[in-house]
Prior knowledge:
Elements: E1 2-12, E2 15-26, H1 30-53, H2 58-65, H3 69-81, H4 97-107, E3 111-115, H5 123-138, E4 144-147, H6 151-158, E5 170-173, H7 187-198, E6 201-203, H8 214-222, H9 224-233, E7 238-242, E8 244-245, H10 252-255, H11 261-269, E9 274-276, E10 279-281, H12 290-293, H13 301-304, E11 309-313, H14 320-328, E12 334-338, H15 339-348
Parallel strand pairs: 3-12, 4-5, 4-7, 5-6, 7-11, 11-12
Antiparallel strand pairs: 1-2, 8-9, 9-10
Amino acid sequence: xxxxxxxxxxxxxxxxxxxxxxxxxxxxxxxxxxxxxxxxxxxxxxxxxxxxxxxxxxxxxxxxxxxxxxxxxxxxxxxxxxxxxxxxxxxxxxxxxxxxxxxxxxxxxxxxxxxxxxxxxxxxxxxxxxxxxxxxxxxxxxxxxxxxxxxxxxxxxxxxxxxxxxxxxxxxxxxxxxxxxxxxxxxxxxxxxxxxxxxxxxxxxxxxxxxxxxxxxxxxxxxxxxxxxxxxxxxxxxxxxxxxxxxxxxxxxxxxxxxxxxxxxxxxxxxxxxxxxxxxxxxxxxxxxxxxxxxxxxxxxxxxxxxxxxxxxxxxxxxxxxxxxxxxxxxxxxxxxxxxxxxxxxxxxxxxxxxxxxxxxxxx
Length: 364
């Protein structure tokens, strides 16, 4: 048994008053505890609203609700700790136009966007923000948008902002599904999210991206539904693509448990350093690991190259060689990356010597 004072809120004449209901003798019970927790959450939310949205300082809040300023300060801190208040600082995206132009010139790209990222944890978010803006440039009525899966592609969709509906868009899955473990950025999940954002028609590949043998892949590719989906891949106008690393510590196929170690080793032995839409290539962008390519369910290598706009989104040290191969092989013709990665790509391809220019000229 315990005695406590229950507090609640009542709004009157645009002022909030705390009302003391009554001192009640009750048994401690799950119901009363839930009620106390709910009332406290309401209290925290309202004090936070008064401070952050109404612009009242802590003294004004304390005076209005009848508690000390130190109590108000403590409750505001608790509201932040319990995620009742979330503070977001939005930095303007800084693009490095000189490095972007270097990439366009060196690799004969349609476009490139090189961004400054000051914190590694912000890399995907910032890449996605710029990639989302770039993608919207190409979205128009009756267009066919192809997409693969991955964290960079998922981050792009998170940042995609569509103000007006664009009619008759198709969203086409370019590579079979990974499975149920990573639904947010699995091929099916990506297409589904784009369907909702764009109010589009989704075309799915209802098969795994990688199967036991070339014979199994051939049989699947003959089925009418999958054949129809692969044919739709060949009609895509714009592709949103990630650039995958085949390094053990970063290979999504291996880390997700869908490719055993010995198979990844065999693929690496062919000279493969990366993949775009599941298609493996070497540092020069040449198709390799053919016996494994034959087991993939997705857009063929040659048809991927025929897509007019191929937007690649990737950044970080582990993506340097994969990006170089993808650029040399023309697997992507629009690149969204960060400045550190762009610098390394240009230096490794003998197009830029870090020692031979003023760092300030490149915004570094």
